[in-house]
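Intended use. Records like the one below are meant for learning the mapping from a protein sequence to its folded structure. Do not use them to infer anything beyond what is encoded.
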Amino acid sequence: MIPSVVGFSGDEEFSGTQALHQAVRNPKNTLEGFRKLIGKKFEEVKVPSDVTHPDMVSKGGVPAYKVTFKDQEHIFTVPEVVTKQLRHILEEAQTYLGSKVTGAVLAVPTYFTEHQREVLAKSAVDAGINVLQIIQEPVAAALAYNFGQSHPIKGGVQDKTALVLDMGASSFDITVLSVRAGIYTILETAHDEALGGEAFTEELVQLVAQEFKKKTKVDVTGNKKGLLKIRTAAEITKKQLARSTSAPCSAESVAEGLDYHGSINRLRFEIACSKLFARCNELIEHILEKAQLTTGAIDEILLVGGATRMPKFQSKVRDIFPETTIRVDEESDEVIAVGCAAQASLIAGFEKEDIIASTKENITVTPHTVKPIGVVGANDQFFTIIPNHTPLPAKRIFEFGQTADGQQEVYFALYEGEQDPLPPKKEKVEKHDIGSDDEDEEEEDLPSKPTYHKTTLLAEVVLKDLPAGAKAGSLKIEATVQVDVTSKIIITLREKKSGKQVRAESA
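Structure written out for the chain above:
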């Protein structure tokens, strides 16, 4: 992965890892965090003012960086810096591929406004990139994980709901995403700008600063340059702690010419970050409550961003979703790029006019099912055929058999369902024994899938004159349920052996 960093030193301009490596010795000319400033006005930006950050000024009302380049003072706006970064990525991609990149799909957070999308698109065009489409990051993640798409062997439609947990350097974004018949729909989003990988790094910085003071009797908390050196080392240590139970941490000339060399234990790091992990859990619980979903309603957890590699983060998620699949089969910090590449491959075969049309802002308000539609089985149990949040029109086909020997009639009815009340939340008991990594807690009942009960009868039909003398379950009856954009329901039952069929519509 190429870090979103641009730097200047003498007559040279750097991007990515090279720029990041010069941050300690040349912080005033190293630009980071500009992605979250795309499309914003200068007055909307919190301007840092110390020796570890470049100077920021307003240029035409747009945030801009004042740097020294080629022995002269230059002012680059955020869009110009983004162009430099994208141009570097384009060059790296073409070098890797050995051929020209003819188009690309870009991804943005769900909270990006149309203006921010336009600014990003213009920066990409200025960098020489042919923008095929701009999609949302949770959708890119779903594409990368092939979430809810037809099974390569079994095929068939998958109706699922996913929770996309995206923790990058500077924020934690959560999205509830449903897929119905291959169509993705974003149901709810939550966002915390102060809860990202940098927040966890900062806790590690404070740990190292305490250790440095303990070893050298020198307090580095007010030394901005010293803390920057520790922060650079701590970022490397944090990544290593995701793979091992302890990791070295070294920083040269932190303060008064003194170096720091030590080792950080993962457990100690996790205890220091306990409040941050708790905030992650609170945000997850908040979005579930907002979406009116139980934990059992989530079929898959899609991890996005390098910070989601932290073992404690994953174990905390597992505690909330003990029965849900957590997808770790893709590199979490490459998921968005893989999803964009997948989307680019899907639309690459379209005519240029169609691609241009698809990049324009065309909003289609698609009707969705508000409540699930299904059938009622034994013991009045409700079985969902078309889930809620399914875009219309929708169609489902399935088979069933007769329940008794010699049965010559089959009754089929569709009902609207209502979710049963959620169980009351249990009070959490905080434990403060930090001497143990595995806290002994009372076991709670594992959350199950949400249950529904029937409410309104939508349509019913009877298939008569089935072949006589057939044993129970021997006849294959194909049921086709269709719901059009006006919510009108059409049921078709067909006995496959004799070809007898019947059709009914809702009122």
